[in-house]
Design goal:
Layout (H helix, E strand, L loop, with lengths): L6 H7 L7 H13 L1 H6 L2 H25 L6 H12 L4 E3 H8 L3 H13 L3 E6 L2 E9 L1 H21 L6 H22 L4
Antiparallel strand pairs: 1-3, 2-3
Helix pairs in contact: 1-2, 2-4, 4-8, 5-8, 6-7
Length: 190
């Protein structure tokens, strides 16, 4: 195999970005998938995959940090946001878990933390004694809306500010296609 066909070699010696970080990020593809990457991927493929993963990690960490002053995590805000949009600001705990793609036990722990702060309230479901309903309280609604405003500003500034409309459309098309393929495997995302 020639050095020119080695994605890791190209990624590490190719045109430098602002501080050389993209080369290190791209190299991760080879760390995770070994020689398969060297044999089959162009530097652009490695950059697309690892760039997507790294950007997701960075944005998630930054959003979590943004929510710290609110005493919330991204997942907690996801629970509260879903309750805000539900009829009567109430959903079954199992519906929340399914909608978020999390286990019922994970959602239960999130709800425990929110309930201790009186941001949500659990009640037995009147239609099904086996089920538990979760309702967003007024205090929860106020906090959720403040946190949502902060996250909205963050996403606008950290994600969309550098993208033109054509790039946004391209990303939307790509993610719609990729998520559409996954829906058959895992069900609809909510």
């Amino acid at each position: 195999m020639s050095p020119e066909s080695n994605v890791l070699g190209e990624a590490l010696t190719g045109p430098p970005d602002a501080d050389g970080r993209m080369a290190a990020i791209t190299a991760r593809a080879g760390y995770m998938m070994g020689r398969n990457v060297d044999r089959a991927w162009s530097p652009e493929r490695a950059a697309a995959w690892e760039g997507f993963l790294e950007l997701s990690r960075q944005l998630r960490r930054a959003a979590e940090g943004l929510l710290e002053p609110f005493g919330l995590s991204v997942s907690m805000l996801g629970v509260m946001g879903r309750l805000d949009r539900a009829e009567g600001r109430t959903l079954r705990q199992t519906e929340l878990a399914h909608a978020m793609g999390l286990s019922v036990s994970r959602v239960s722990r999130l709800i425990d933390a929110l309930e201790r702060r009186e941001l949500v309230q659990r009640r037995p479901c009147p239609a099904d004694a086996r089920a538990t309903n979760v309702t967003l309280t007024r205090a929860g609604l106020r906090l959720a809306r403040k946190a949502q405003d902060a996250v909205f500003g963050f996403v606008e500034e950290e994600f969309f500010v550098s993208l033109d409309d054509t790039t946004v459309e391209t990303l939307a098309d790509a993610f719609t296609t990729l998520l559409g393929r996954r829906q058959g495997d895992e069900g609809a995302c909510a």
